[in-house]
Design goal:
mainly alpha; 6 helices; elongated
């Protein structure tokens, strides 16, 4: 008969695996161009909301609406109405192209503003400008990649 005190102990229970968050599952389901678009659109929204107050460097309402549309479309494109979902890539490409055109116009305005003697540039304004142009570049690049990789 075996002594219960000397019996081999059972291995300790394995630690529970951390539950995957819904956001990590959503990000994992996105393609690389969609991730670029989402990151750029989020940066544009943050820049539009934050630097308008902090630095006086505001982006137009058109840029804010386009960025919000792109962000919602990328994050929720499986739940979009059929009309939008069927034209998903074309709409994102149009939003990216629109943002690039608006950024080109803003770049000319910013260069004139910086070159004006009394105006100059401050660090908060420069940070807002960088946030805007990097966000537009990310959205534009992601939209171009998405359009380039689409099936005809």
């Amino acid at each position: 008969m075996t002594d219960p005190m000397n019996a081999p102990s059972s291995p300790p229970p394995a630690p529970a695996a951390p539950a995957a968050s819904p956001m990590s599952g959503m990000l994992a389901s996105m393609s690389r161009p969609e991730l670029f678009i989402a990151a750029g659109a989020a940066l544009l929204v943050i820049t539009a909301l934050l630097f308008t107050v902090v630095a006086g460097y505001g982006v137009s309402d058109l840029v804010l609406v386009a960025a919000v549309f792109a962000l919602v479309a990328v994050l929720r494109h499986r739940q979009l109405p059929q009309v939008i979902a069927s034209n998903y890539q074309a709409l994102l490409f149009a939003v990216g192209a629109l943002l690039v055109v608006v950024a080109g116009r803003n770049l000319l305005n910013d260069l004139v503003y910086i070159a004006t003697p009394p105006a100059g540039i401050t660090v908060p304004r420069l940070t807002g400008m960088l946030g805007f142009y990097i966000g537009v570049a990310l959205v534009g690049f992601g939209a171009w990649q998405l359009w380039k990789g689409r099936k005809a």
